[in-house]
Design a protein that fits this description.
Distance between the termini: 39 Å
Radius of gyration: 22 Å
Order of helices and strands: HHEHEHEEHEEEEHEHHEEHEHHHHHEHH
Structural class: alpha/beta
Mean pLDDT: 93
Number of strands: 13
Largest sheet: 8 strands, mixed
Shape: globular
Strand content: 15-25%
Helix content: 40-55%
Low-confidence stretches: none
Number of helices: 16
């Protein structure tokens, strides 16, 4: 009972992934590691303070290798390049990859230089995360890291007490809970609004019955190395790499939303990624209503998902009339016809339908619903759905949705 066929297949995927798809600079960096560690933590860094490590780690951190990918996109301005180069110099004072952060606790750093060779602007943070996670996967595969879970975070995060002591599931991906913390009341208010939008979206997906109702923040993830390799790692994208990784993982492994402990993410405006929290905060006008998807869009989604469940059992697809034009655009009817011919059992057809109508197509569906159900003030939607929130602040609504 040392290995099941499924486990053997996943283990084989790691060797195959490393030999065919892993980043070359990740494998080169891994070769510099001679010691062994209990865990590896991956942190991509672009235009960050050289002192970020002082606040990143929880007090119990020990026997840890931090894989830092210092990177600049090839379209970065001169000042950002200079600041990232200064960070790299701080992390590599002797121009070597391995640094000692805390000798007594055996906390070391392994820094990958993608400042000298900038990353393509259209790959940016996705490539940086992939390099770091590929390196951690290689180190686990070679026996230099004992824990097969790849911890991923960002330089603007404060990891909580108990983070590394948290019992993780048997496999798949674990998503740690989080909250944003602003440096001033105005920033905090904007962060609350954006986080409320994120939580509202996930809450409504869950209510509708979607299998993709989870948060997709790269700074909150721990990923099983075998499952990471199975889906060929982080996609090389300038943004949304976390969303797309989870979208792939959800089709082959469980996605677990942990109850604790809670990460603190620094709320700050940023133009570094084409979308995401930093750019969203920069766009928010704190003195105006924050618009988000209408509840009616999720009600229509629930009907579609119920129709898919019925179709997997009956082999016949009957869709809500209001949703048919959107689903025709997405290609559901064509996919269903092919799936019915290919998959002869209910379970296989069910998986084929929900793998196709995944997190990305769900998001596209909700976006296209806007033509019929325009965005509306988020506070209005929340009161419509949860009348007890009437008159409460964004912070109170957040507390409610964090439960």
């Amino acid at each position: 009972m040392s290995s099941t066929p499924a486990r053997s297949t996943r283990a084989g995927n790691v060797a195959r992934y490393l030999s065919r798809y892993a980043e070359a600079d990740a494998l080169h960096a891994a070769e510099q590691v001679k010691d062994s560690y209990q865990r590896a933590l991956v942190v991509p860094c672009f235009d960050e303070s050289p002192t970020f490590l002082e606040e990143l780690l929880p007090p119990e951190a020990a026997d840890l290798l931090i894989v830092i990918v210092a990177n600049v996109p090839d379209n970065a301005d001169a000042e950002a390049r200079e600041r990232t180069a200064a960070l790299l110099s701080h992390l590599q004072p002797d121009h070597g990859g391995i640094g000692v952060l805390d000798a007594a606790k055996r906390i070391h750093t392994l820094t990958v230089d993608r400042v000298s060779q900038p990353v393509p602007k259209n790959q940016a943070v996705g490539l940086a995360r992939k390099i770091g996670a590929d390196c951690a996967t290689a180190l686990w595969h070679r026996g230099h890291v004992a824990c097969r879970w790849i911890y991923n975070t960002d330089a603007d995060v404060r990891l909580p007490c108990g983070y590394f002591d948290t019992t993780l599931p048997e496999r798949g991906v674990a998503i740690f809970p989080f909250r944003h913390r602003g440096s001033d009341p105005r920033t905090q208010h904007k962060a609350d609004l954006y986080e409320l939008h994120m939580r509202y979206y996930v809450n409504r997906l869950g209510w509708a019955g979607s299998r993709y109702a989870f948060h997709t923040l790269g700074s909150t993830l721990a990923v099983d190395a075998e499952d990471y390799a199975t889906v060929r790692g982080f996609p090389r994208r300038s943004g949304g790499e976390d969303f797309h990784l989870l979208n792939k993982l959800a089709k082959v492994a469980p996605v677990h939303s942990l109850r604790g402990p809670e990460l603190i993410i620094q709320a700050r405006e940023s133009q570094r990624a084409p979308f995401g929290t930093g750019r969203a905060l920069a766009r928010i006008k704190a003195d105006r209503d924050y618009l988000s998807y209408a509840p009616a869009s999720f009600q229509l989604l629930a009907k579609v998902l119920a129709a898919l469940e019925h179709a997997s059992k009956s082999g016949k697809l009957t869709l809500p009339v209001d949703a048919e034009p959107i689903l025709q655009t997405l290609g559901l009817q064509t996919h269903f016809a092919k799936a019915v011919d290919q998959y002869k059992t209910q379970s296989n057809l069910d998986k084929a339908l929900h793998d196709w109508f995944d997190g990305l197509r769900t998001l596209r569906f909700i976006h296209q619903c806007r033509s019929r159900h325009p965005d509306q003030p988020l506070t209005h939607s929340l009161v419509e759905l949860f009348p007890d929130l009437a008159g409460d602040s964004a912070a109170s609504a957040l507390a409610f949705l964090r439960q």
